[in-house]
Amino acid sequence: MEILEKRIQQDGLVKKGNVLKVDNFLNHQMDIQLFNEMGKEFKRLFADKPINKILTIESSGIGIACVVAQYFDVPVVFAKKTQSINLDGEVYSSKIESFTHKRVYDVIVSRKYLGPEDHILIIDDFLANGCAVNGLIEIIEHAGATIEGIGIAIEKGQQIGGKLLREKGYQVESLAIIDAMDDETGEITFRH
Ligand code: 5GP
């Protein structure tokens, strides 16, 4: 998606450790016009899917998911990160290792908001090694719901997550796929 690639080129900062900072339009300040364009594009890409719910993970996925949801006219459920997990049978849970914070979280979704009748579109801001998305997949599988697709704003194509998910047969649509980025020159190249 050209406008997203342009915005990444303009405002993205390449940090050490293979991290792209996009705080000025996605992860801190949010550009809702841009999110709207992303929502339209996801609707086009998943137009033939019977999606009735969007699942994301707190916190960065929520803003995008809410704007995208308006194009599908469906609710958003977000997986909550928690440290003191109370496994009382009321929730589905999974463990996710955070790429940016280098720690493991338990994430939970209430059984009230996910079940076998649901057809889910997963939305997240970044795809790197795929831990976050795989945690969400595990939760959806526990619930017996159907995964209709995975929509990502920025995929770091130099990491393995996207490749593995596509090999498993999921429809993964990333609006910008980074091929390489250099923390010394700040150069970012995209895959098309
Ligand atoms: P994964 O679980 O696929 O390894 O990483 C994806 C998650 O880590 C996303 O939910 C995102 O919040 C975070 N993340 C991974 N890489 C980056 C990055 O380069 N920049 C930012 N801002 N977040 C990232």
Sequence-ordered SSE layout with sheet pairings:
Blueprint: H1 2-11, E1 13-15, E2 19-21, H2 23-27, H3 32-45, E3 53-57, H4 60-72, E4 76-82, E5 91-97, E6 104-110, E7 119-127, H5 131-143, E8 146-156, H6 161-167, E9 172-181, E10 188-190
Parallel strand pairs: 3-4, 3-7, 7-8, 8-9
Antiparallel strand pairs: 1-2, 4-6, 5-6, 9-10
Helix pairs in contact: 3-4
Descriptive account of the structure:
This protein is α/β, with parallel strands linked by helices and 192 residues long. The protein has a single domain (2-190), classed as 3-Layer(aba) Sandwich (Rossmann fold), CATH 3.40.50. The chain is built from 6 helices and 10 strands. It has helices spanning 2-11, 23-27, 32-45, 60-72, 131-143, 161-167, and strands at residues 13-15, 19-21, 53-57, 76-82, 91-97, 104-110, 119-127, 146-156, 172-181, 188-190. The strands form 2 sheets. It has an 8-stranded mixed beta sheet, sandwiched between helices. The protein has a two-stranded antiparallel ribbon with strand order 1-2. A hairpin with a 3-residue loop joins β1 (13-15) and β2 (19-21). α3 packs across α4. The model has no long low-confidence stretch (mean pLDDT 95). Bound molecules: guanosine-5'-monophosphate. Guanosine-5'-monophosphate binds at residues 19-22, 27, 60, 99-100, 124-132, 156, 161. Guanosine-5'-monophosphate binds next to β2, β7 and α5.
Identify the bound ligands.
guanosine-5'-monophosphate
| Low-confidence region ranges | none
Estimate what percentage of residues fall within beta strands: 25-35%
Structural class: alpha/beta
Return the CATH architecture. 3-Layer(aba) Sandwich
Q: Return the CATH topology.
A: Rossmann fold
Order of helices and strands: HEEHHEHEEEEHEHEE
What is the highest CATH level, the class? Alpha Beta
Number of domains: 1
Tell me, rounded to a whole number, the average pLDDT.
95
